[in-house]
Amino acid sequence: MKMFEFLKNLFNKGKASEEVNIGLDELPEWFDVESKKVIEHTGKEAELVLEQLKEKVKEIENNIEKLKNAELPNPNISNKERHFMEGNREAYMKAVRNFLGGVLLVNDLRMLHKYYDEFDEKLNSFAKSTGRSYYILQEFLSAESRTVAENINDISKLVNRLKEIISKGNIGLLDAIRKSIDELKNQNMRKKSLLEMLNDKENIKESTEKKLRLLEENIRELEKSDEKKKLAELFDNKKKIIGEKKEHERKFLSDFSFLRKPISKYTRITLGDADLLYKYSDKPIEAVSNDKGVKIAEVLENMKDSIRNNQISLDEKKKEKILSILNRMDKDYFDDYLLNKERLIERLDNTEQEIKVNKAYKEQDRLDKEQKEVVLKLDKVKKEIEQIKEEEDKIDIKGIKDGIKDRISKILQVEVRIE
To answer: How confident is the model at residue 313 (pLDDT cuts 50, 70, 90)?
Structure first.
């Protein structure tokens, strides 16, 4: 054993100053070759323990047979006691055979490392499940059952020795390094892919920003054009006409607002005109538009007579105001309202038509839509760039490399530079 340790230290000492420059693509194969060397050295020591384990398993199997065939030192026991003993002997032997079936004897250090990590748990489980049977057998076949138990204890010691050898050989760490190498390769590929994506997105961003600047320049040029000035005048005129139309309707509505109360009272003494009066009281503008022949003028004339004849009771001051309004609201009043409204609508329609055919209006509409699309596209690509950068920043290639180099140095005594 001392000679083996000496040779191992001598081997490691010779490698301590070794430096290796290796490309990422060649790293997996290189590491597999170097790992094999470590495993071979560790395997030689492990082989001795494995042979002892195999011998110990055979020894237990022989001792189980002895336990099976053992005669009772005191045959003068009752049938009940004999059946009790036989049942526990069978249970104990079955449990021992199952336990032996779980003793891995393959000459594969990686497999042994993974398997025997859970050996203590299996041993504890075996001890708990066989404790009662073993205790009972000690009363009947103490020597034979104790020998088997001692054999189990010997296996436990040999497995622990094997685990020590595997641990000292860093077999588990070799697997961890191999996984890190695979991770490095995958992360490196992902980082390259992200950088390519980032480059593509940056090109799209640059071209989109250029297009946006061009659109903004076209919009500024359009603002200076004669057509745009004409368009501004048309919009001002449209605004003016809309204002005139609203004022025209406001005055009309204002007159009818004074008539709501007298109309309400008049509908109580008139029969045929009540429906028309309700419409004017509720929505005067809509009512007058649908009142063919302006029948309301005649109805209001009749209502005016009823007010004068005191058929409708009103406050004197309000009565004067209402009569002055009704005096104006003859057929010409409504005809003028409708005619002026029609003229305003015609002027508004003509102005809107001029706006629609204006070249600046069409061009402004096109540029606005295109600018909106480009801004949305630019916002989207900026977000995508940020997402790619965030993901790319999380990939710590240097950190993974440093971790691999440190662990390789610890196990293989080689300073690796991963290119």
So the answer is: confident
